[in-house]
Amino acid sequence: MIKIKQLTFENIGRFVSPQSIDFESLSHLVQVDAINELSSGSSGSGKSTIFQAIEFLFGCNDTPASILQSRLTKEKISVSALLEKNGKEFSVSRSGKGLSIQIDGVVTDGSIKLAEEKLQELIGIKPEYLRKMFHKRQGEGGFFLSMRPTESYEFLSDVLGAGAWTKKAELVTDRIKSLSLKRDMAKQSLEMQSHA
């Protein structure tokens, strides 16, 4: 499981200047409360922007970056985070320049495909499922119960890591078939030689 320790973002939603949130001091379950100082209500205070920044960072947003970008500037969105997985820290940043991942001083960037694959490997769950797991939007129905059987199987396989074991089991099954075929061919060869 990935833990977000620090999140920094700018030029997204109503936020132009860099905003930084320290999640390390918070518990595992976080509720975002905010007040819009112009209206004294919570609407338009930037709560959803935090989730949109995380979605943008992880590549699981379904809203184009051009719409997420603040209308108050021409500068591109920039989101970065200090993350932790299995006790190991790493950083991820995404902007108009692309995606960059740094683990143990090794930076993966340049090739967006390579960096996206590395991020997917770290997250361990498909982006479309990740967004629905951590950000249920208003009026949006539950996603797991509405899945078809194949989708729920695929989702649970991803989440539980069963996909890797399924692939290994398939390789073992293929190897067993191959060895069985070789055994049968060897038996036939021995029988033919003994009759000769």
Would you write up a description of this structure?
The structure is a single chain. The protein is α+β, with helices and mostly antiparallel strands and 196 residues long. The protein has helices at 47-58, 65-68, 112-123, 127-134, 149-160, 162-195; strands spanning 2-10, 19-22, 78-85, 88-95, 98-103, 106-108. Strands 2-1-3-4-5-6 form a six-stranded antiparallel β-sheet, covered by helices on one side. Strand 5 and strand 6 (106-108) form a beta hairpin. The longest helix is centred in the last third of the chain and has 34 residues, at 162-195. The termini are far apart.
N- to C-terminal distance: 64 Å
Query: What is the residue-mean pLDDT, rounded to a whole number?
Result: 81
CA radius of gyration is: 24 Å
Strand content: 15-25%
Strand order of the largest sheet: 2-1-3-4-5-6
Structural class: alpha+beta
Low-pLDDT residue intervals, each spanning 5 or more residues: none
Quaternary organisation: single chain
Secondary structure: helix percent: 40-55%
